[in-house]
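Lecture notes, unit on protein representations.

Consider one protein chain, 144 amino acids long.
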Amino acid sequence: MRPTSHPHYLTSPGLFPWVPPAGGLRTWGCGEHFDALRIPATLAPPLVAALQAAGGSGPVLADPYSGSWHILLDPGTAQPGPWACHGIRLLRPGTRLTIPAADVTVGPDLHWHTPPGVGRTHAEALNAAFASQPGTTHRPRNSR
């Protein structure tokens, strides 16, 4: 299968088919074109910097209104577990996430910290970024 035949792959230079045109917004369900990891804005900048240092350069949304950032990954690549700490959550499939146009990179509203088309974030790079950050180490919950 050619990479462009699957909907979450780039189909034109720099754009995923789920990114709306300039001036637009679109809402998608997580798991459809991407998985999303929600991070409190207070933790996001150093974690995203560590992620980028670990080789993750995929799309990252910043939402000042909700006080959260979202790291987008290919659908089905992130599993629940290691991120369940300090308010960091893997959004469930079907959870709706609003996506702005790729050129919306600043402002007091929803915008891209790392716009789509720059690269991809893989779960391995995400794990490495979490492991490098003090205070984000996952502690397994007691199964009793």
